[in-house]
Amino acid sequence: MDRIILYGGNRLTGEVNVSGAKNAILPILAATVVEGNESTIFNVPNLRDVEVMEKILLALGCTIKRVDNIMWVNSKPLDQVKIPDELAREMRSSIILMGAMLSRCGEVIISYPGGCEIGPRPIDMHLKALKDLGAEIEESYGFIHCRASKLKGTEIQLDYPSVGATENIILAAVKAEGTTIIRNAAREPEIVDLQNYLNKAGARISGAGTSVIIIEGVNEFKKDVTHYTMPDRIVAGTYMIASAITRGEIILKNIITDHLQAVIAKLKEAGCLIYSDENSLKIIGPERINSIEMVQTLPYPGFPTDMQAQIMALLSIANGISIISETVFENRFKHVEELIRMGANIKTFGKVAIIKGVKELTGTKTTAKDLRGGASLVLAGLVAKGRTEIENVYHIKRGYEDFHKILKGLGANIELVE
Ligand SMILES: CC(=O)N[C@H]1[C@@H](OP(=O)(O)OP(=O)(O)OC[C@H]2O[C@@H](n3ccc(=O)[nH]c3=O)[C@H](O)[C@@H]2O)O[C@H](CO)[C@@H](O)[C@@H]1O
Ligand SMILES: C=C(OP(=O)(O)O)C(=O)O
User: Fold this and answer.
1) Where does this protein hold phosphoenolpyruvate (predicted)?
2) Does the interface predicted TM-score (ipTM) exceed 0.90?
3) Pairing relationship of beta strands 387-391 and 3-7 according to DSSP bridges
4) Is 254 annotated as a binding residue?
5) Looking at the whole model, is its pTM more than 0.90?
């Protein structure tokens, strides 16, 4: 099993070209099946989740070619409606294929999705919305069978701005009869990227990035699409913390700085110096991190839950007491026990963590329990005294392209042992 081994203490300096966003490319790849057409997609990150989505598209009958970070998907030959069970269980985003396949084939059979264990992650809002659009849904033995002879546009009020549910509804509604309006839609930038991709294919969607999205159903899409995947704001945020935690000086290129405002604000509070323009930034870590009174995770544009574990690693060496309140997921503190093993002083009370900064973390054997939790252990290891070993690296590979290589290039003493 892969392990990361690192020796902390090095100051990280240099430049990082931030990769394309996992949470944008996954729904876009699902969207490639909506119409039998060809998509050329640039800036596709090399990630385990992307490989799983590729395997699903191949199993459905699509043909795919990939050279480095460019992917060509031809969805014309698609001829299957069942998503292979073992692949659907590998990642959460498989669920987004429900809406896309209903649009394309009027039918899809899929098992309950897998992904990071960060809470129960129900899909009730997805299913309710698809039913509202006219789909019939049968659930048995862990499988979901959705069918719709014709989807009809409707008004959908989401109880919570769920990212996945918003994407599923958009994908189901693009070719429905009439107009669909989503209220209390998720406002994440990745939804804007999905809208941009689909509109290039001929869809008529407006409002992504706001809480009201309007989808006018169209009969036919244009044939081919070329798209450049947006940069990964969570990868960018993770390298910002790598700089902050090591008193480093890192320049990030190929970012959309605006997507990072919530993270920038908190890292400035922690004492970092940040200089930015539209598509790049420089972050300089302070001698000692300031504690932060409160970090509360929220839907975008609030502080992202996908950065919660990483900022916790940073605050574990802050000068003072910090509070983190996780409001998005039920159970996203699995990294806490691992950080404690490294000497952090953290107590959790339900969805709140109180972090009393310590002067020094110490390296030890740890286990990545999920993607961002795994990244937080790497960040802690960068500054911990001595040797840190991290098991279950496959979690980290779900969301970070060449993580150890990039950190090594910045000066970290880090190896991946395969
Ligand atoms: C591939 C992808 O884009 N993943 C992101 C997406 O996940 P995902 O789309 O799964 O996250 P959601 O926004 O749907 O989930 C937010 C909250 O809503 C709840 N919920 C969601 C749907 C539903 O039908 N019922 C329900 O109760 C979830 O359990 C969770 O507590 O957004 C999350 C929140 O920003 C991020 O952490 C994930 O990285
Ligand atoms: C939780 C995450 O991903 P997913 O929704 O794919 O499990 C994440 O990217 O941090």
Assistant:
1) 22-23
2) yes
3) antiparallel
4) no
5) yes
